[in-house]
Amino acid sequence: MTESTLPFGTALVTGGTRGLGRALVLRLARGGCATWTVARRRRGLGALEAVARTEQLPITAWQGDLTTRAAPARIARRLARDRVTLDLVIHNAGLLGPRVPLAQWSRRDFDAVMHANVMAPFDLTRRLLPRLPSDATIVFISSGVTTAVRTAWGAYQVSKVAMENLARTFAKEIGPDGPRVLIIDPGAMRTAMRHDAYPDEDPMSVPDPDTTAAAILGIAAERGHASGERLRA
Prior knowledge:
Blueprint: E1 10-14, H1 19-30, E2 34-39, H2 42-55, E3 59-63, H3 71-81, E4 88-91, H4 107-128, E5 137-141, H5 154-174, E6 180-185, H6 192-197, H7 209-221, E7 230-232
Parallel strand pairs: 1-2, 1-4, 2-3, 4-5, 5-6, 6-7
């Protein structure tokens, strides 16, 4: 599916200034979708806003740290204030944390990863649901670490397993008459997070984020996928 044929008029992508998130935001906006995003780093937001100005893209970018309790409420309030109705929500923002055994994690690092990867999607979803039309789609970006227990993936692995069950619970409770919930594993791709996890890997051996973003948006646009389904990009 090309950018011009995407069926979304409005979208929110968390973590939209780097890697996969940036690729998703640009693909959506270049297809004419009014796209909102939130990210922690001011520098990344500035770079994205510069592209939006140059290409005259419908992108609204806010600074917000989804590892904090206040961020989801602020995002929801701002969207409500602007009377935004979303066709697509993509929970993309995520935090990796240190690649060490769980016993070596600090409580602070563990809490930060769990908050960014589980609590923020939970809080944001519950706040946005009243403003989502019944044909909207909510995408939770997962990871291959949920399919088998691996060592030294710490809270990231724990959080992604929890996030998948969070998504399935939302899907079950929302039911067939409300927004659809999808879990998408993007697979390996050429991002800073991937480099942090696999510093010795040749980055050219894995797909670029834009290729993965195209696959994810194609899945989200396909109405044949059932709510609660887990899919691979």
